[in-house]
Amino acid sequence: MNANLLVVGVGGQGVMTAAEVLARVALAAGWDACKTEIAGMSQRGGVVSSQVRIGRHVHASEITPGEADVLLALESAEALRWCHWLAPAGHAVINTMRAVPPVVSSGRAAYPEDPVGAVRALGYAASAVNATDIAVALGDVRLANTVMLGAASACLPFEAGALLEEVLRRFAGKQALARLNAEAFEAGRAQAAPSLPPSVRPELLPPSVRPELVEGACPERLEGLSPNGS
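User: That's the sequence. What structure does it adopt?
Assistant: Structure tokens below.
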């Protein structure tokens, strides 16, 4: 039994950084974890995706369409592009930020009017998170990743505190940045609903997770993602 996480966005949003954080936390919690990524034209704002598989024994690093338990989308339209990778009981956590590509700004294509609504119309559970707005309010747009990780923390097979610890480890010796990221993470957690969704398999939760944390953990409607990165 594996937990399959898919992180998507565009170049410069920190997709690969977020996936790296998730994989490191899983390993530290005693799970096996594999990560794979496709950067594409990431340096030009192109599509970036990263897959993280977590379980007792993970023998393959790639997820196939229809198997993702959690889709963490740092950009709205990318959530719609990748939602068919979700399992039937999977959950999409979507940043409402729109990164309009040149093909749209030049008038050759149209940006989806309501990406989150379109994902829901296809039958997938999806939560919209104003992560970029929260990050800007905190003083740094790059904090949007951390906001998203905080919101998604309720749906992952390890404790939120362990995830926050890994996020803050990246800012060792930088107290101001660490404090801002801690605030962003908690802001994301505050948006997460208080029930465990069926897509998160209780048997994956390590013994270190206290029962009260499990019972009050995951959302049926999520939100959330990571710190500065690529």
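The chain has one domain: 2-215.
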